[in-house]
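Memo to structure team: turn this sequence into structure tokens by end of day. - J.P.
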Amino acid sequence: MKKLMITSALVGSLFAGAASAQTTVSGNLGISYFSVGNATENKANDLGTFGRESQINISNKGKLNNGLDYVAGFSLEFDGGDSAATTGGAITKNVAVGQQQENVYIDFISGNTTFSVGVDHFQNTDAHYTNLVGFGYVGADGINNAASIYPTSGASLYGSWGIGVAQKAAGGQFGLYYTPHANNTATTDIGNTLTKAAAIDNPSGYELTYIGDAGVKGLTVLAGYARADSPTAGGKVGGQRLAAKYNLGSLTFAIDDVTQKALNLSDTDGRSYGVAYAVNKDVSVGLTYAEAKRPGLKDEETVLVALGYNLGPVTVQAQHKIAQNVAGSAANDGEITGIYLGTKF
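Reply from structure team:
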């Protein structure tokens, strides 16, 4: 009985400390529309469709009883693709999937050093610097039902559960992230039903990053290198990215150089350039050129023109992509027009 009383008192004291913390709730909503037009021989695959993302973020921050700061939180994100069809009792319906891995973290902060535990939270190379005014990645997914080979993240590992250490220095922040198994699954918090198969026990991996201005006003640099063993003996997956954008008042220039190494595939290299001009405080225009190369495939090329309009609490972005050889195939040429409405709350 004494042991039970001591344990209860300890648990009570932990939750009592949390009462002095600050909890915030925020969110964002994005609704988009896409019109895909293919080359003449593939007109049967033309389409028009909506896209969406809605997200709620819950965050709690305060001080530990040892004087360190902490921030903890998680998000509930619902993308257009975050559902799967299932059939039960002769009824087909969509069920939500994937939200359990969204921006889950506990950060411990001491001055310029942050120690982080979680998933989908740590700084990483999943970025699209050269699409300065439009939205999404530069690749033209959807042409002739194919996916662009332009690397989106340089095989970043931030979507796998792990631990990270971030250090502010040299006009930015360095990061080291380690994952004990390079996948994005997790068992229950108390480990019940734990098995190697359920955990998908892939080999470990790590990612090194730097994000900052390197001491140059108007400059933003992103550099990253990720590597992980693959389940195939001797195989490696990962990649590297070096991207930068520089603002000169109304003009902004950007460049991206990225390589991605995937299992059983040759390395894929992407390079893109972007320029944007702010017409006034509410209207901006942008232009992006991107190319992606993989041995044995045709070079993929994309030109993107974008217009952005700020309505205060709501932003409107429109973009038009003209793409050739999507997925490295000469049969995949076409155009995609997209419109995006976004708001935060």
